[in-house]
């Protein structure tokens, strides 16, 4: 099983943004909730967590940029879910979002965690957003680790 482990992380004093797509909210909201739990567990103060909802995964890039510029966060977790359909829409949006998040990382010097599930089926998306396999928690931990790296 593929997984990542984290040392004890301390998020006190950090400002973290979480941008979440409402499209596929049955998947994205549990990811958001697990991410927020990770931030809380690591000691990020409630008033230093900024959550921004956006319509869909394509818009998470702009939402992340907004949090960076307006809230001056130390890191952002960009949460969305794309599920492949019968057209090329999935490929276009997945590529654009991937490139947009990468560009924010390199151009703003603020870590933006890629929390966009790109799944072939709804079952894959649900598997990655529920129970012990909910990826949102690790994304929250990643944001703290990367924000701490930025500050070091």
From TrEMBL:
Q: Which Gene3D superfamilies match?
A: Lumazine/riboflavin synthase
Coiled-coil residues:
none
Q: Does the keyword Transferase apply?
A: yes
Its Gene Ontology molecular function terms?
Answer: 6,7-dimethyl-8-ribityllumazine synthase activity
Q: Metal-binding: is it a keyword of this entry? A: no
Q: Which domain of life is it from?
A: Bacteria
Gene Ontology biological-process entries: riboflavin biosynthetic process
Pathway noted in the entry: Cofactor biosynthesis; riboflavin biosynthesis; riboflavin from 2-hydroxy-3-oxobutyl phosphate and 5-amino-6-(D-ribitylamino)uracil: step 1/2
Q: Kindly list the GO CC terms recorded for this protein.
A: riboflavin synthase complex
Active site per database record:
89
What residues does (2S)-2-hydroxy-3-oxobutyl phosphate bind to? 86-87, 128
Binding residue positions for 5-amino-6-(D-ribitylamino)uracil = 23, 57-59, 81-83, 114
Name the UniProt key words of this record, in alphabetical order: Riboflavin biosynthesis, Transferase
Q: Catalyzes what?
A: (2S)-2-hydroxy-3-oxobutyl phosphate + 5-amino-6-(D-ribitylamino)uracil = 6,7-dimethyl-8-(1-D-ribityl)lumazine + phosphate + 2 H2O + H(+)
State the family named in the UniProt similarity comment for this chain. Answer: Belongs to the DMRL synthase family.
Q: Which PANTHER family does the record cross-reference, listed alphabetically? A: 6,7-DIMETHYL-8-RIBITYLLUMAZINE SYNTHASE (PTHR21058:SF0), 6,7-DIMETHYL-8-RIBITYLLUMAZINE SYNTHASE DMRL SYNTHASE LUMAZINE SYNTHASE (PTHR21058)
Protein function: Catalyzes the formation of 6,7-dimethyl-8-ribityllumazine by condensation of 5-amino-6-(D-ribitylamino)uracil with 3,4-dihydroxy-2-butanone 4-phosphate. This is the penultimate step in the biosynthesis of riboflavin.
| Protein name as catalogued | 6,7-dimethyl-8-ribityllumazine synthase
User: Origin organism of this chain?
Assistant: Candidatus Magasanikbacteria bacterium CG_4_10_14_0_2_um_filter_41_31
